[in-house]
Amino acid sequence: MIEALFFIEAQGNHKEVVKNSLKKLLERLKKEDGVKVKSESIGEIIEEEGMFSTVLDVDLKFSRFSSFLRTSIFYTPSAVEMMEPSELSIPREEFLDGVAETLKTAKNVFSGLDMRFKITGDKRKEVGLKTEEIEEMMDAGAIRAKIVFERKAKTRSGATSELLRTLGDSVYVNTIKTKKVESEKPFEGVIGIDAVILDPVAFMDIAIIHTPVLIEIIEPDDILLTMLDLQDISLNLASTFFEISYKVTQPDQGSYNEN
C-alpha cells in the first residue's frame, strides 16, 4: 500500500470555474480503480492580475504501484509528499506492469498528437561491463534489464550511436545488438541492449522518452524503492505529462522537445 499527499493546482479567469474544475476532478479521482481518497481539502481561491488559482490537497492510498503511476500521469500534481511506506519492495512483474502502463500511455499520447521527444547527448557510452562491475551495481540496488527499441537512421552505426548518447548517465550498457528489418538502406530495425540501470527514475524515463517495444527485467526478483524514489517518479511523470498538455493547449509553443 502506498499513501501520498497530492497537491493539484487549478487556474483560470473565472473563480467558480476554477473551484468547480477541482470538484469535478475530485469526483473522478474517487472513482479511480485502485485509489482511495482518505481526505481532501480545497484551498482558498486567490486572485492575481485577473487570474484565479487554488490548490486541492488530497490524501490518497494506492493499492497498486500502477495506480500510483497512472494517477501521477493523469492528475499531474505540482507537489507530492509521500506518507508511506519508507521503503517498498515490489515484485518485478508488478513493477513491469507499472512501466508497461506508463509506456502505453506515452505511446498513445505521442501517436495521437504526432509528438516526439528530441533528445541530445554529448558523449557516446562505452559498451561492455566486467562481471565484478555488474555485481557491484546490483548490490547497490540497480536493475538489470533487456530492452528493445525500434529505430530508423541513415546507417546501423548511426542508430546505435544516437541511442548510446541519449540513454542517460544512470544507464550502463553491457551488450548491444541490432537487427535490420529491410535489406536496403537506410537502417530500419530494432536495437536490443542488456543494461544495468542505477536509478528507478531513469527506468521510467526510458519508457517515456524512448518508448521501447520490449522490456524484460533480468534481476533482481524484487525492486526496492525508497520514499524518495517514489516521490521522484511521481513528480517526474506529472511534470512531463503536464508539460506535454501545456504544449498542446499552446500551439504557438511548437512540438515538445526534451534536451
Report what the structure shows.
With 259 residues, this protein is α+β, with helices and mostly antiparallel strands. It has helices at residues 15-30, 65-75, 92-113, 131-139, 156-165, 200-210, 227-249; strands at residues 2-12, 35-42, 46-48, 51-62, 79-84, 87-91, 143-153, 171-180, 187-197, 214-219, 222-226. Strands 1, 2, 3, 4 and 5 form a five-stranded antiparallel β-sheet that branches. Strands 8-9-7-10 form a four-stranded antiparallel β-sheet. Helix 2 (65-75) runs parallel beside helix 7 (227-249) and helix 3 (92-113) packs parallel to helix 6 (200-210). It is globular and about 60 Å long. The model is unreliable at 251-259 (pLDDT under 50).
Brief characterization of the structure:
By secondary structure, this protein is α+β, with helices and mostly antiparallel strands.
Entry keywords:
259 residues, alpha+beta, Alpha-Beta Plaits, 2 domains, 5-stranded antiparallel β-sheet, 4-stranded antiparallel β-sheet, 7 helices, 11 strands
Low-confidence runs: 251-259
Q: Determine the N-to-C terminus distance.
A: 35 Å
Question: What is the CATH architecture term of the largest domain?
Answer: 2-Layer Sandwich
Largest sheet: 5 strands, antiparallel
Q: Which word captures the global form?
A: globular
Proportion in β-strands: 25-35%
Helical run tally: 7
* CATH fold annotation of the largest domain: Alpha-Beta Plaits
- Give average pLDDT, whole number: 88
The tally of domains stands at: 2
Give, in order, the helices and strands: EHEEEHEEHHEHEEHEEH
Radius of gyration, whole Å:
20 Å
The residue fraction in helices comes out at 25-40%
Number of strands: 11
The secondary-structure class comes to alpha+beta
CATH class of the largest domain: Alpha Beta
